[in-house]
Structure formats: structure tokens, C-alpha cells
Amino acid sequence: MGLVQWLKGTFLCHLIICYGFLVSGLLVNLLQICTLPLWPINKQLARRINCKLGYSITSQSVALLEWWSGTEVTFYTDPENCQLYGKENAIVVLNHNFEIDFLCGWTFCDRFGVLGASKCLAKKELSYLPVIGWMWYFLEMVFIKRKWEEDERSFVQSLQNLRDYPKKFWFLLHCEGTRFTEEKHRISMEVAEKKGLPKLKHHLLPRTKGFWVAVQNLRGTVAAVYCCTLNFRNNETPTLLGVINGKKYHPDLYIRRIPLESVPEDEAECSVWLHKLYQEKDQFQEDYSQTGCFPGPVITPPRGPWALINWLGWTCLLLYPLCLLLVQLVNYGSILTILATVAFCSAVSVGVRWMIGQTEIKRSSSYGVPLNN
Fold it and tell me: Roughly what angle, to the nearest 10 degrees, separates helices 43-63 and 11-34?
């Protein structure tokens, strides 16, 4: 292990990363709150501003993955389709097998310039959390309570609100509803057997209701479905804590562009279509486990500098007053003040570690909660 790699795993580096993310996130949240008076006056301008502010937070996670840990996502896709990425609205269907699959999805968005305007389906509780949750609220994320009777109206309204969105956006959707585990897979395949559906080896059964509602309400706004299948070389088991420790992973992402016109409008036919799509995804995963690669050519979209510049900018901006404070503390602070500062930093670290722990697969939600199949 080299010196740089050792430093990346130290408590001090982790504390600086967490401090920068949390404080910059809260400052961005404050700026987002300041846009509230603008919404009734010029809604589209408020949306554009919030896209920029949102990018300032989410791109820090992309910089952490790409520049700090050195993880480089390899993209497999048709070069002709690649010309359309970032130039059209799309529904992005992702598999949900890994702790950092959301980071790989954000990297895909960032490479094609739609990270600030990317949307996702999230639990309602997250909208109350500072930094990420508040940012998502101002970015008009689609929040649900996982109770379809209560969610249907707000879900449809949130999707309808995106029809006049001023920037190109991608709606990221995990149709399985929760991360893959062996126990959830067993339960899911029991459901498949009862319904007479083909069993999947690498995925849970997709929840078709939410996908169909999303497609129906975004027709005429969204041009295509991007079917994305993610895996990691050498049977790697990536974690967010590993990324923060500077560990390099090797993700491969296979992207297929499917015109939205090919998705059936009838709910029952759409359900059959989505199940077939997941059977195809499952076969791609099985082939990957045998060959170590996905079909099709590899493309390498340029990695822009803005995520890194944003991250370094925030770090430098926030470290300066922190260093001044520490100098004052060491020179003039009492023992009690120094101990209180150490205790506060430790509490912040514990809090961030708790947040990281929520991304662990074992902490994901249980299988079988609606949105309905």
C-alpha cells in the first residue's frame, strides 16, 4: 500500500470529505430556499438555478468515485445511440444489485451532461433529510410512501410536472424496488412461480405498475428507455465506504436504447414487455459471469473536469475558515473547548458513517412492498 493510498484511508481525510460535503450541502440547501420567491415569478428560471445548485452537490459524489477512488465506469453501447445520450429525455432502467450502483448511474448522467437535471423515484422520508433530501425536493424528485393507494395521485402529478421541464432530464428507475439479496431473491422467485413467470437468476421480479404509470405520463416528453445493466469485474463487491477509502473498482455498464414507441400502452401488455426486458437483462448478467464482458462495442465519453473543479472549489473554500478556527482554538482555546471540538468532530464522523451505513445492502427495504406488480 502506497503513502497516498494510506492517507486516503485515514480518519482525517474522511473527516475533511464529510465536512466539505455536509457544509457545502447545507449552504446549497440555503441557496435553494432563497429561490422560493422566484418560483411563482419565473418557474423555469428557478428550475434552471436549482439544477445548477443540485449539480454542485451530486457531482461531489461523482468526483469521489472517479477522481478519489480512481474508479472508471466502462460503457458498452451502440455508438449511434451514444450520439443521442444527453440530447433527449429518457427513462433509465437500472438493476439494483450493488451498494454504489447509484454512483455509477450518476456517473453515466454526468458524462452526458444531465446530472443536475436527473430525477429518480425516492422514499418520501428522504425528502425531510438535509442536504440530499432537501436538494431532491427542489429538483422535483418523485417521492412515494410505497402505498399505492396514497401514492398514485402524487406520483402522477409529479410526473406530469416534468412535461415542461426546461432542461433535458433522465428519470432513473429501479424497477425491482429494492436491492438484490439472496433472501429477497428467494421470496421474489416464489412469487414468480405462483404467477407462472420465468425465474430470474440475477434480478428480482420488476414491479410493473410504477414503470407503466411513468411511461404513460411521460409519453410525448420522453423519447426512449435506456436499459442499463451494471456489473463489476472479478466478482468485486463494491461499497461506499470502500470508495471513501480510495479503493478502485471496475464497473461495466451495458446500455441499450429502446424507443418509447416500442413500449406497449396497455398496462397488461406493458407488464409482459417489462418482464421480458428483465429476462433479457438476466441473460446478459449470466453471459457476463461467464465471459467477463457485455456485448457490443466499448465507448469512452470524455470525463469532464467540472465535477473535480466543483469538489476542489468547495473543499478549498471551506477548509480555509476551518483552519483559521483550528489555529484560534489551539492558541486561545481552553482544554474544555478543545475537548468539545473533538467530541463534535467525532459525532459528525459517527453521523456520516451512519448515513453511509444506510447504503449497505443489508439495510435496504424488504421485498414485496408496493408499488404493485
Answer: 180
Helix (H) or strand (E) holding 277: helix 267-291
The pTM is what? 0.90
Which of 4, 11, 19 shows the shortest CA–CA distance to 311?
19
Instruction: Classify each residue of 15-37 as buried b or exposed e, where b means 16 or more C-beta atoms within 10 Å of its C-beta.
Output: eebbbbbbbbbebbbeebeeeee
CB 73 within 8 A of CB 253: yes
182-219 burial, b at 16+ Cβ within 10 Å, e below that, comes to eebbeebbeebeeeebeebebbbbbbbbbbbbbbebbe
> Which residues lie below 8 Å from residue 176, measured CB to CB, with a gap of 6+?
95, 96, 203, 204, 205, 206, 207
How far is Cα 132 from Cα 206, in angstroms, rounded to an integer? 26
Q: How confident is the model at residue 369 (pLDDT cuts 50, 70, 90)?
A: very low
- Report the chain's C-alpha Rg in angstroms: 22
For residues 302-317, give the mean pLDDT.
Answer: 94
Highest mean pLDDT among 8-12, 98-102, 252-256, 363-367: 252-256
pLDDT band at 371, cuts 50/70/90? very low
Q: Grid coordinates representing 316?
A: 478549498
Half-sphere exposure of 267 (CA within 13 A, CB side): 9
| Contact of 212 with 89, CB cutoff 8 Å | no
The Cα–Cα gap between 305 and 81 comes to 24
- Averaging pLDDT over each range in 13-27, 119-133, 224-238, which range is the top one? 224-238
- 342: part of which helix (H) or strand (E)? helix 335-357
Indicate the pLDDT class of residue 368, thresholds 50, 70 and 90: very low
Closest among 299, 252, 207 to 104, alpha carbons compared: 252
